[in-house]
């Protein structure tokens, strides 16, 4: 018998597949596994879900070492700390939360030291919330021009967390603005192909408004204690 969360995952996967058929899109699912045991993650991986997201570097490093599986694509989706950057580069293939030139420079330096390239998304604080990380949308062009020189960073797209209030009210303005900016930038940068918006509370809304990557954790596993 499948675990409850595997059944939920199957339902989410079906939602995405149906949406892809309807819109002729290709949306990626990142299963957010922070706070989950290696046993739970093993069941997820065994059921074919190989894109996993983690928020905390030390916790993630232990899991990544435990699995030692190159077929798993690990995404760092937490707040970047300068003293953890070498560990991030060692363990992850994606960093979705770049919003500081200083951190971009340090990521590039760590990549140079390990002869590695890493995929990055630029985090946008789309609703200008003081409690959230991310650059303002008005600063995006200058920011990209400052980090595009770091050739070990592959700039893949934008990541954002629209306000919960907007999601609850199904206010799509922020989502549409992000999609418009993504479309504009996609024409300027060759590897720019990712718009990472949508979590447990708003992934359908995000998909309906242009997101091609959703990051879902609590809906699958239940609220974290």
Based on the model shown, name its key terms:
single chain, 225 residues, alpha/beta, TIM Barrel, eight-stranded parallel β-sheet, 10 helices, 44% helix, 18% strand, globular
Please give a structural write-up.
- The chain has 225 residues and is an alpha/beta fold.
- It has a single domain (4-221), classed as Alpha-Beta Barrel (TIM Barrel).
- Helices cover 44% and strands 18% of the residues.
- It has 10 helices and 8 strands.
- It has helices spanning 4-23, 38-46, 57-67, 85-91, 101-114, 140-147, 164-168, 173-186, 203-208, 218-221; strands at residues 28-32, 51-54, 73-76, 94-98, 118-124, 153-160, 194-196, 213-216.
- It has an 8-stranded parallel β-sheet.
- Strand 2 (51-54), helix 3 (57-67) and strand 3 form a beta-alpha-beta unit.
- The radius of gyration is 17 Å and the shape is globular.
- The model has no long low-confidence stretch (mean pLDDT 95).
Q: Tell me the major beta sheet.
A: 8 strands, parallel
The strand order across the widest sheet is 7-6-5-4-3-2-1-8
Question: What is the rounded distance between the termini?
Answer: 25 Å
Structural class: alpha/beta
What is the domain tally?
1
CATH third-tier fold name: TIM Barrel
Order of helices and strands: HEHEHEHEHEHEHHEHEH
The multimeric state of the shown protein is single chain
Shape: globular
Can you tell me the CATH architecture?
Alpha-Beta Barrel
Could you name the CATH class?
Answer: Alpha Beta
Helical proportion, percent range: 40-55%
Total number of helices: 10
Radius of gyration, whole Å: 17 Å
Strand content: 15-25%
Could you give the count of β-strands?
Answer: 8
Averaged pLDDT: 95
């Amino acid at each position: 018998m499948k675990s409850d969360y595997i059944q939920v995952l199957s339902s989410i996967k079906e939602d995405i597949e149906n949406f892809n058929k309807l819109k002729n899109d290709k949306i990626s699912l990142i299963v957010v596994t922070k706070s989950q045991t290696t046993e739970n993650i093993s069941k997820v991986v065994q059921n074919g879900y190989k894109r996993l997201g983690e928020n905390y570097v030390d916790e993630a490093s232990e899991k990544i070492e435990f699995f030692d599986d190159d077929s798993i694509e690990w995404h760092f989706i937490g707040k970047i700390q300068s003293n953890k950057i070498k560990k991030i580069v060692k363990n992850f293939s994606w960093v979705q939360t770049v919003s500081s030139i200083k951190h971009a420079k340090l990521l590039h330096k760590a990549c140079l030291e390990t002869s590695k390239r890493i995929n990055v998304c630029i985090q946008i604080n789309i609703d200008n919330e003081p409690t959230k990380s991310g650059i303002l949308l008005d600063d995006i062009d200058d920011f990209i021009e400052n980090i595009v020189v770091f050739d070990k960073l592959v700039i893949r797209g934008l990541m954002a967390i629209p306000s919960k209030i907007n999601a609850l009210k199904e206010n799509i303005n922020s989502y549409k603005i992000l999609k418009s900016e993504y479309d504009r930038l996609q024409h300027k940068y060759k590897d720019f192909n990712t718009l990472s918006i949508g979590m447990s509370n708003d992934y359908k809304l995000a998909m309906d408004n242009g997101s091609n990557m959703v990051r879902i954790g609590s809906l699958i596993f239940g609220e974290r204690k």
